[in-house]
Amino acid sequence: MSVEYADVEAAAARLEGVAHRTPVATSRQFDALTGAEAYFKCENLQRMGAFKFRGAYNALHTLGADERKHGVVAFSSGNHAQAVALAGRLLGIPAVIVMPSDAPAVKVAATRAYGAEVIFYDRAAGQSRESAAKRIAAERGATLIPPFDHAAVIAGQGTAAKELLEDVGALDALFVCCGGAGLLSGCAVAATHLSPGIRVIGVEPEAGDDAARSFRSRKLERVENPQTIADGARTQSLGEITFPLVLRHVHDIVTVSDAEIVEAMRFLWERMKLVVEPTGALAAAAVLHARLPVRGERVGIILSGGNVDLKSAAALFAA
């Protein structure tokens, strides 16, 4: 199943008045450092603190009456968990979330606060979140809502780029973080339709470079249990739906180190007063550290989320 721009438009209609139309920030200092004219789409200010709300709400909204009655099951390290939990509460759909036992405490607490049931699995011991979620969904007759490899989820995520381009006009490049590429592929579908000639660039952590390698080999490659501070990008591979979309619409995928992520977070926090989590700073880190030439260009940057554990952030900044 693929995703077209019409799917993004339909998702935007469902999300209107429900999702926040997040603001676009700029920074003269960032522009001076990079030589670009940068526009930051602040999905850290989205409902539940991340872009994931867009895809989760769109996916749950498309369910039929019987599917809604039996509820949904999702698996996530945090932001998709919160997004499905909140969307379920808003739509009256019971939600069960399978989360890793080492997920950030702030994300677990928020997921429960939105009314979802949380069931843990141990990823360090090699347990599979997908298998656990599929088993629970089968036992309860619930619908499985994966975090990225789902057409309605992807279409919902693409509305972030749609809004950005509507607000700031055509761009030369758009930098988007990449885990399983739900956000990246959805934004790429929207951006290439609305801004012909744009270059869409995915950004992932060096320790989890499966997407970059897959993009170059044109074969789906994996990284087992990637160790990076960008917990939202610890996915092991792209998906069966997202990978073809990436190959069709994305122009390059680059990587950044954890140290560069922290530096980008520090800039966003201190200079722009934007609380952004490690995964949310991936795209900014790639531009700040000149992974690709952007001098003299109009550049979009998706700040994907702001659900950061302040104690963990303090440790990162002190290191």
Task: Record the SSE blueprint.
Blueprint: H1 5-15, E1 24-25, H2 28-34, E2 37-42, H3 52-61, H4 65-70, E3 72-75, H5 79-91, E4 95-100, H6 105-113, E5 117-121, H7 129-140, E6 143-144, H8 151-168, E7 173-177, H9 182-194, E8 199-205, H10 210-217, H11 242-249, E9 252-256, H12 258-270, H13 282-288, E10 298-303, H14 310-318
Helix pairs in contact: 1-8, 3-5, 3-8, 5-6, 8-9, 9-11, 12-13
Describe the structure.
This protein is an alpha/beta fold. The protein contains 14 helices and 10 strands. Strands 1-2-10-7-8-9 form a 6-stranded mixed sheet, with helices on both faces. Strand 3, helix 5 and strand 4 form a beta-alpha-beta unit. Helix 5 runs parallel beside helix 6, helix 8 packs across helix 9 and helix 9 runs parallel beside helix 11. The chain is globular.
- Number-wise, the strands total 10
Q: Please, what is the average pLDDT?
A: 95
H-E order: HEHEHHEHEHEHEHEHEHHEHHEH
Fraction of residues in H or I helices: 40-55%
Globally, the shape reads globular
Helix/strand structural class: alpha/beta
Q: Unreliable stretches, pLDDT < 50, 5 or more residues?
A: none
Structure summarized in a few sentences:
By secondary structure, the chain is an alpha/beta fold.
Features:
319 residues, 4-stranded parallel beta sheet, 45% helix
